[in-house]
Amino acid sequence: MYKKILVGVVACFSCGYAAAQSAVTIYGVLDQFAEYSDTGAHSTARLASSGLYGSRWGLKGSEDLGGGLKANFVLESGINPNTGTFADSTRAFNRQAWVSLSQTNVGELRLGRQTSPMFFTEGQIDAFVGASIASGLNNFSTYTVRTDNTVAYLSPNFGGVTAEVYYGFGTTGNGLAGANASYQAALRYINGPLYLATIYEAVKNATNTDILRSTYTGGHYSFNSFIAYLAFHTAKLGSQQIDRQVVSASVKWLASPFTSLSLGYTYARDRSGLGNNAQDVGVLYQYALSKRTTLYAAASFLDNKEKANYTLAGAAVAGIPLSSPGENARGVQLGIVHFF
């Protein structure tokens, strides 16, 4: 999956400090799909990127400082292979850009632009890895995926239990008093086939007038050739009348070493009093051509109530908007993913 760039090439990136490093890894994901969707008064066919996995390329490296201490970094940028463009033209590395110190028995301290633990957890409590149009959990969830100017501590493993704490200084550098400031916490337990997690996130908006509070609680359990998933999500943001509870149940059948079939049902309950509830039924089939290349097919049937405006999204691609609030959304998606 990954290619190694030896010391001589690393010098291009390290500006003379290559002697202190053994290697840098360049990696990436290319996800391309074709989709047909009906979102009310009109239907749409499109070719796009990042349906099941966010298309990206990145650099990562680690230096052994002795005594179990390591210096690490990740630089990662989203890309659109269907157009050959960056996912965010305003940033060189929009997905991740951080440096850290880690020690096996102490944990890891990271500084920089980081991905929310909500994002990583979503993929572990949903049979659709929190992506593709089939994922009702993804279609109904609201949270901040990445935060700038963030300090994070990731604990070592204590008998299967790990914890993470993130503090984001926001775009103004005024800490939690500033715009886009954030606080996140995660607690996980992993024991053989069992995975459990609970995540909390609070992020101020860009105008420093409101706070988006989101949570995930859920897990999965593996037995025989099946993996069962259960997830709960809440989101509240007063300025946009968001006050939501989401429950999702899904299962993945590992039919063979090369194929899997996922089925799921998700219900979104509007607690704002507006009655904007919704439900989604999704199905995803994956066929691995190799360890690095997979074909996938997804379908989703999303029913909106009252003025709910949920639509069918992807890993890192927006869904086709509804023709009007309250319309239903239907879609099918065929894609290919290649890892390098």
Automatic annotation (TrEMBL):
It comes from Paraburkholderia fungorum. The lineage of its organism: Bacteria, Pseudomonadati, Pseudomonadota, Betaproteobacteria, Burkholderiales. Its main location: membrane. Coiled coil: none annotated. It comes from the Bacteria. It is found in: Cell outer membrane. One of its GO terms (cellular component) is pore complex. Keywords: Cell outer membrane, Ion transport, Membrane, Porin, Signal, Transmembrane, Transmembrane beta strand, Transport. This is Porin. One of its GO terms (biological process) is monoatomic ion transmembrane transport. One of its GO terms (molecular function) is porin activity. Residues 10-306 form the Porin domain. The keyword Cell division does not apply. Homotrimer. InterPro entries: Gram-neg_bact_OMP, Gram_neg_porin_domain, Porin_dom_sf, Porin_Gram-ve, Porin_Neis. The keyword Nucleotidyltransferase does not apply. It is a multi-pass membrane protein. Residues 1-20 form the signal peptide.
